[in-house]
Amino acid sequence: MAAEESYAAQLRAALRNHNWKIRDLERRLKDSDQGYSYEHIRKVCGGMPVMSEHFNHAVCDLLGMDKAAMWQVALRAKAQSGSKSAIIASSMAASAPTPELRALWAELTAEDQARARRYIEALADQRRIERLETTSDDPDAIRDQILRLTERLVNTAAGRRDNRQPQRGRDEDERQTTKARVAGNR
C-alpha cells in the first residue's frame, strides 16, 4: 500500500492542476471573504500542519477537493506533529464506543469537538475526584491529583479565553463544587 500524500503535497498538486500560484489562492480566498495571508498559505504548502478546519474548508471549496478527506489528512499530520488536540480528536473519532457516536462526532466542527472534549474531561475529572474522596487517604496521592487537576483547569481556562466567551451559570456552579471538594480533602 502506497503511503498517503501529505496535505501539503495534495494542496500543491491541486494548485498545479488549476495553474494557480500561492498568490492566486490568496487572492481568491480574500475575494470570498475567507482571507488568509500569503505567508500562512505558503507555510501550509511547505508542510506546516493545518490548524484550522475553516482554512481546510475554504481551500477545498476553491480547489474542488474533498473537505472531509483532506481534514482527516490534516488531523493525521497534526497528530504526527504532536498536537494534543488532534491526537485526542482522532482517537475519539476512531474509538468512540458506538457507530452512532462516531457518526455524530464526524458531524461536529473542530470547535464543537473541542467543546465536547472539555465537557467530557470535566465529567471525567469529577468522577476521579469522587473516586479519590472514597478511595484515598494518602496525602501524596491527593496532592498529586490536585496538581494534575489544577494544571488541567488552568489549561482549560486558557482555552476558553482563547476560543470562546466564558459560560456562566452551570460552569460556575461546577467550579465552586469542585473547589469545595478539593478544599475538603486538605
Topology:
Blueprint: H1 7-17, H2 22-31, H3 38-45, H4 53-63, H5 67-80, H6 84-95, H7 99-107, H8 110-135, H9 139-163, H10 170-184
Helix pairs in contact: 2-3, 4-5, 5-6, 6-7, 8-9
Descriptors for this entry?
186 residues, 434 Repressor (Amino-terminal Domain)
Question: What's the number of structural domains?
Answer: 2
Strand content: under 5%
Radius of gyration in whole Å, from Cα? 21 Å
Distance between the termini: 56 Å
**Which blocks of ≥5 consecutive residues have pLDDT under 50?**
164-170
Helix content: over 70%
Largest sheet report? none
**CATH-scheme architecture of the largest domain:** Orthogonal Bundle
Structural class: mainly alpha
Give a structural overview:
α4 packs across α5 (67-80) and α5 (67-80) crosses α6 (84-95). By secondary structure, this protein is mainly α. It is elongated and about 70 Å long. The chain is built from 10 helices and no strands. The longest helix is centred in the middle third of the chain and has 26 residues, at 110-135.
